[in-house]
Structure formats: C-alpha cells, structure tokens
Design a protein that fits this description.
By secondary structure, this protein is mostly helical. The protein has six helices and no strands. The protein is elongated and about 120 Å long.
Amino acid sequence: MKDVISAAVGIAGFAVESARDLTTYMVRRGQMTQSEADKLLREAEAAHAKRPASERNKPTATKIAAEKAALAKAQAARAAEIAAAAFAKLHPPRPAKPPSKVFMPKPVKGAKAPAKKAAKPAAKKAAPAKSAKQPAAKKAAAKKAAAHKPAPRKPIKKSAKKR
C-alpha cells in the first residue's frame, strides 16, 4: 500500500506488483469484485507501459526505505569501529604478568606454626614395619574415646494418667 500511495503522489516509482497485492487484499475484504480488480490492473499496466523509461525505472518506496536502512546500518557499524579504535588507543592492553610469589599470610604472634610434612619419594611405597609401640598407641586412643562418651540416658517414665 505504501508503494502505491507513494507512486500516486509522485514521491516514488510505481510497482505493478504492489498494485496487484492491494487489489487482491481488497477482493478478500469484499471491497471490490474480482472482475473490477482485473480491469483496474489492466488499466494500471497499460498506463505504466506508456510512461517514459526514466519514470518506469524509478525506485519504489520500499526499495528507497531498504537502501536508507542499509546505509544507516553501515554508518552505525563504522561509528562503532571508530569508537572501538579510539578506546583501544586510550586503553592499550596490559601485558600479562607471570604470577609472583604465592601469598602466604603472616603468622600471628603467639600462634604455633603448622608443622611441615616431609615429602616422601614416590618410588618407595613399602609397608611400614610394625612396631611394638603400635598396640599401646591403639589402647591410648581407645581410652580417650571412652572418656569422651556421653552418659547413658535414663528411661522416661510413663505417667498413669492418659490425656
């Protein structure tokens, strides 16, 4: 419809396809009969053929709008490229620094430092020899565990009254 109205005003070129679409729409809505639409299209095609070639090749309103949108999109992309280049110039990327020393918190005064475990070689994986002290250590651990056990609970007495 936009193409037909623009062509009628003289802003843009006439497109027979747009006129065909508009008449089909009007027939579907019951605003004109199919025979009226066919007659109107034949007259429009005849009048369009009589026009000079310069007017027949004039772009339609839809084509003009599409070209404007493409131009605006290209200009926006170019502006974004310029802005990105300016930002990169003002804020150059920093070179990656290798990690410095591992952060270790300072020990608190009066606190005991954690004991460091000695690294064992991976090649030696022999089973530790059983010593005579092992059973004594197990007994001491069992005594500690028994000392920390809670006292047994007393059974709850049931009252004679029922609620």
